[in-house]
Amino acid sequence: MEIANSTVVKEFIFLGLTQSRNTQLLVFVLILIFYLIILPGNFLIILTIRLDPGLSAPLYFFLGNLAFIDVSYAFIVAPRMLADFLSEKKVISYKGCITQLFFLHFVGGGEGLLLVVMAFDRYIAICRPLHYSAVMNPRACHTFLLALWLGGFVHSIIQVALILHLPFCGPNQLDNFFCDVPQVIKLACTDTFVVELLMVFNSGLLILLCFLGLLSSYAVIFCHVRGSSSEGKNKALSTCTTHVIIILIMFGPAIFIYTRPFRALPVDKVVSFFHTVILPLWNPVIYTLRNQEVKCAMRRLLRWHVVC
C-alpha cells in the first residue's frame, strides 16, 4: 500500500497530555507506579490460567486471552508516552504514527470482539447448559479466537487504508499524546468529510452496535438467571455482572471518542488517557477480584513456588 504522493509531512509532533512540566512529572510517576503494580498482576493471571488444570474451562481460556490483549494494548501507547514525558520535543515519524494507529485499532478491535465471544459463552453456559460442552469445545474456542483477531485486523486495516490516501502537507502538530484517527485526520490538507463519515461508520457504529448487543445479551441472561433456582445462580450473576462492568469500562470511552464528529473537546485527552493507558489493565484484575476460582488458583500457584 503506497502513501499518497502529496504527503510531505515526515513526522508528527505531539503536544502531549499537558504543557505543565510539574504535572507531566507527576503523571509519569503515577503511571510508572501503576504499571509496576498492575502489569505483573496481569502476567500472573495469564500464568495461572495456563498452569492450573482446574482453569481449563472456555471461560478462563477467554479470560487469559483478555489479559494478554490488555497487556498488549498497554504496550502500544504507554511506553512511548512515558519516554515523551522526559523529552523536550515529542516527535514520531509518519510511518511510526501509522504503525501505532494500526496496532491500537487491531488490538482494540480484537478485544471488543473477544467480549462478544465471552458474552456468547456465558449465554450458552447459563441459558443452554446441556449444549455447552458441544458448542464451546476446544476447537470452537480456538476458531473464535482466530476470528476475533482476523476481525480486529480487518477493522484496523480499513482505518489505515483510508488515512494513507490522505495528503499531509502541514501543520504536523497532533493535539494528543499518541496517534489516533480523529487527530490525524484533522491534519490532512483536503476535505475529510467523507473519510470522517467512513471512519465513524467503521469504528463508531461498530462499537455502538457491539455495546448495545452485549448489554441486550446480558439482560437476557439476567432475566433467565433470576427466574432460576439453581445452585449456581449467585455465581452466574457475579460473573455476568463482572462482564458488564468490563464492557462499560471499555465501550464507554470508545463510544465517546469514535461515535461523534471529529471535533476537539476539552475532555478528549483525559478520556483517551484513561481509555488507552489506565483502564485496559484493570479489566482482567476486576474479573479476578470477583472470581473465587481464579483467586484460589493464584494462591496455589504462589504457595507452590514459595514452598519450592
Automatic annotation (TrEMBL):
One of its GO terms (molecular function) is G protein-coupled receptor activity. Pfam families: 7tm_4. The chain crosses the membrane at residues 25-47, 59-82, 102-124, 144-168, 205-225, 237-258, 270-289. It is a multi-pass membrane protein. Coiled coil: none annotated. The keyword Protein biosynthesis does not apply. Signal peptide: none annotated. It is found in: Cell membrane. Gene3D superfamilies: Rhodopsin 7-helix transmembrane proteins. GO terms for cellular component: plasma membrane. Keywords: Cell membrane, G-protein coupled receptor, Membrane, Olfaction, Receptor, Sensory transduction, Transducer, Transmembrane, Transmembrane helix. Residues 41-287 form the G-protein coupled receptors family 1 profile domain. InterPro entries: GPCR_Rhodpsn, GPCR_Rhodpsn_7TM, Olfact_rcpt, Olfactory_Receptors. PANTHER family: OLFACTORY RECEPTOR (PTHR48002). Belongs to the G-protein coupled receptor 1 family. Putative odorant or sperm cell receptor. This is Olfactory receptor. It comes from Phyllostomus discolor. The gene is LOC114490345.
